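Bumping my old thread because nobody answered last time. Still need a sequence for this structure:
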């Protein structure tokens, strides 16, 4: 049986995924970004990750032209950044506090919204259906002590793991 777009989205919406915003600077020095949950680790040596970007994304050109990006993994409190960056506004960053990445061409690091971020240089692109897969070498990263926000069946949820008792096994 053929799988249509609705069923495909339902399939991948049936389990929780991390929420991230991928950012880059365009050729005019303007910040660009998109909300993305199609992210994966690729390799530890060297440290590589991938992001999948729709060919129709307004951010794609900035990603390809700049050759670098920041993967902003969102924390609780980053839901509004996810909503804003999922839209098509030209002014996505007007209400977001960010700092420029030192190693990813000045791409925005969403300081108030992140659980973690990875500053990446694009090392490979692969065309895949209606998306481009961008493989980035992680040149810098930070992890903060915050709770992650997840996306599940069309809604944001905060994951708060249960505390383990001292001496207990996972």
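Sorry it took so long. Here it is:
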């Amino acid at each position: 049986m053929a799988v249509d777009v609705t069923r495909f989205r339902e399939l991948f919406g049936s389990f929780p995924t991390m929420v991230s915003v991928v950012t880059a600077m365009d050729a005019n020095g303007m910040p660009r970004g998109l909300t993305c949950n199609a992210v994966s680790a690729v390799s530890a040596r060297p440290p590589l990750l991938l992001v999948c970007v729709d060919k129709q994304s307004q951010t794609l050109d900035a990603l390809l032209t700049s050759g670098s990006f920041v993967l902003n993994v969102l924390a609780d409190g980053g839901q509004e950044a996810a909503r804003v960056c999922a839209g098509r506004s030209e002014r996505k960053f007007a209400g977001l506090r960010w700092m420029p990445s030192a190693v990813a061409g000045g791409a925005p690091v969403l300081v108030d919204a992140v659980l973690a971020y990875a500053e990446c240089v694009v090392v490979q692109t692969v065309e895949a259906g209606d998306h481009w897969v961008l493989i980035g070498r992680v040149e810098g990263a930070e992890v903060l002590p915050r709770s992650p926000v997840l996306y599940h069946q069309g809604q944001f949820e905060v994951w708060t793991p249960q505390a383990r008792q001292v001496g207990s096994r996972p």
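The longest helix spans residues 5-13. Let me know if any region looks off to you.
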